[in-house]
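User
Class, as today's exercise, I want you to study this protein, comparing sequence with structure tokens, and judge whether sequence predicts the tokens.
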Amino acid sequence: MQPSPIYDRCTFSSLARITDLDTTPFDVEARSRDQWATGDYVVGVVTDTSGYRAIELPNGRDMEVAEGDAVVGAFGVRQATLEMTGSWRTIGTDGTMHALTRAGLFGAEESRSTLIQRPLALRYHGHVVRNGVKMTMEDAAPSVEERPFTTPTVLFVGTSMSAGKTTAARIVTRRLKRMGLNVLGAKVSGAGRYRDVLSIQDAGADWGFDFVDVGLPSTVVPEEEYRGAVRQLLARMAQPPADVAVVEIGASPLEPYNGTIALEELQDALAMTVLCASDPYAVLGVEEAFDMLSPDLITGLATNTAAGIALLNQLTDRPAFNIRDKETHASLDSLLRDRLGLDD
């Protein structure tokens, strides 16, 4: 069935990168609310670009859209403590919804920090369907045979979002590549954005994965659903012949992105844990909340100044330094080699 003319020039968000929607015809049908679910691919027509106006494309590039443009995204939930919360479940009867991330995570904004712009507004126009069956992210990500993930892993955890995890992961990736290692990069929880995975690959990672690859628009889903998805993700991550994995848990384990489940599933592969802290006192909260989390290094925003590092030294006995400072790279390399057993 050929798409109707308005969809001939759909803008596909990066959540659609696991599909063939850009090459194979589809239809669009409005569905009743009782048929809506997380991960459904839907078409929204842009109604307001006075705030954010960019959509992240399947190749990771941002593109500005205009009112009247049709955008393919997916229903999901975002619970970002420092930026925005929203859900497809609270979309009103008039169909007004928002791009909760530039990746095309669609839902209704529920709360937003005064420090960020209004999200792109759209009107629900219908579900993406083929042969009368709605298309979903889960269906676009066929399952693989589960297998143990044993690649030695450097794990990045934050005390909150925007604590410096992705920046730190890029730096560590570059250091590992200079040691001659094959590096796999992954983000196993958070809200869908392709940018983070690509940035790790831009830093030199030979392979990149995230939860979108296994059909999740974000990891704000029931625990058992996430556990099944992350095991699928780890099975995929186990396939390349990587020497080391650089893995990020989005937000913090205390937030509703199932970071705790991710920690549990990664325990057997952990070689080193890096805690990126937005505030020195937050380190104590995370350490107290998670017995399984024993950071080998504390870095991030809390280490930007000597005062922050001094306070961390008072609060914890863990090494703390700013890995963005090139003067610390010798210490960082030594710690990486020790934890990965590269000096044996």
User: Anything to note?
Assistant: The chain has two domains: 5-140, 153-340. The chain has eight helices and 18 strands.
